[in-house]
Amino acid sequence: MEKVLLIIDDSKEIIDVVKGIIGGLFDRVEFSESVEDAQNKLEANVFSYMVLDINLKEGRNGAEVLRFLVENPENKNNECPVVILSGIITAQFIEKFNSKFAGIVTKPFDHDEFVQMTKDILDAKESANYKDIPTATCELPFTLPVLEAKVSKVMEQVRKNTKLKELFHNLNIDRNADNYIMSHVGMLINASTAIAMKMEWNTEKTLEKFVYAAYLHDMALAERPDLARIKATAIELELMQEKMTPADHKLVLEHALIAANTIDGIPEIPADVGMIVRQHHELPKENGFPNRLSYVKITPLSSVFIVAHDLTHYILENPKWTVKDYVVKAKNKFKGPHFAKVLSALSEMN
Ligand SMILES: [Fe+2]
Ligand SMILES: [Fe+2]
Cis omega before residue 225 (within 30°)? Predict the structure, then answer.
């Protein structure tokens, strides 16, 4: 979309200065020297960024432009970031219009700061425009009212994280409702948070980690639901090698590390999520991949996630699944105190 800057100032000189400093960041620059003209322009065009001088001449005030936007919530420019140019801004003014402006530039301007601020605001605006992440819809194994209330609140917060939106925006996920990845994500959120709550690990912080991990654990396989379906021990995966291309085999083997490394580089995602994702295919009898970790090296949070993940595969493969049948099988597969606790919580959910 064309990036258009609107400068509202009654001084041609200032318009030229502002244009000289940040004009290069836009495709086109327009200006208004009066409140009326600015209002006409705002009715007719869509701008990407607005620089507004607060003290216009003849007693007219730039605040009128802000008031115009507040009073016309349907105006096309209501999402447009407004930066205020001013010598002095009163506390009263800030209180009144704070939500309307994206930044303040005090005269005389520091050129570099003004440019940097503009870049930051434009970047933030772009990421806020990322489409929402696709909804995880599927039949859920656990329908507990408390769980639903608590987890949907956490999910709502997680889904607002612009970093997560950005990651999803870059993933080529088929957005239709019965997409494998998204049903797997939905079921995994439900199963991991249900187990965590049963274990009384029910702080929002902890639940949030499982929601993030569920969304992101198979991100490296977003375009390959066929590979995301693979549930295997390290040895089984080795045996599958013959039937796979070397590239696919490598991708399956490394997908947890690829995702974890990306997550570790994003401070907006809670600590531990990277570890949960890194370990999601490990199995406590040293037969998971990629690192064949022993149960002592698998963290308690990862243990919950690994069981929840295994359970969701089991559910998808066995339409007549029951928790009881699953726990019997799982007891042979997992070992160590963390896994024992997880399985005992799960068996109580019968
Ligand atoms: Fe995976
Ligand atoms: Fe998975």
Answer: no
Q: Could you tell me the distance, in angstroms and rounded to a whole number, from the CA of residue 36 to the centre of ligand 1?
A: 59
Q: Which domains does the chain have, with CATH numbers?
A: 4-128 (3.40.50.2300), 145-347 (1.10.3210.10)
5, β-bridge pairs = 29, 49
Per-residue pLDDT averaged across 61-90, rounded? 83
- Of the candidates 100, 118, 306, 92, the residue with the CA atom closest to the CA atom of residue 210: 306
Residue 177: the pLDDT is 43
Residue that wins the pLDDT comparison between 240 and 61: 240
Centre of ligand 1 from the C-alpha of residue 232, in Å: 10
Q: How far is the CA of 203 from the centre of ligand 2 (A)?
A: 24
Task: Compute, in angstroms, the gap from residue 26 CA to the centroid of ligand 1.
Answer: 42
- Name the CA radius of gyration of the chain, rounded: 27
Q: Which two tokens stand for residue 211?
A: 């929601």
CA of 143 to the centre of ligand 1 (A): 24
C-alpha 176 to ligand 1 mean position (Å): 21
Contact call for residues 208 and 252 (beta carbons, < 8 A): no
CB 7 within 8 A of CB 19: yes
7-54 pLDDT per residue, tens: 999 889 989 999 999 999 999 999 999 889 999 999 999 899 999 987
Report CA(348)–ligand 2 centroid distance (Å): 24
Q: What mean pLDDT value characterizes the chain?
A: 88
Distance (Å) from CA 199 to ligand 2 centroid: 22
One-letter amino acid identity for 308?
A: A
- CA of 218 from ligand 1 middle (Å) equals 5
Give the lowest-confidence range in 96-100, 204-208, 321-325: 96-100
Q: What is the pLDDT of residues 276-301, one digit of tens each?
A: 999 999 999 999 999 999 999 999 99
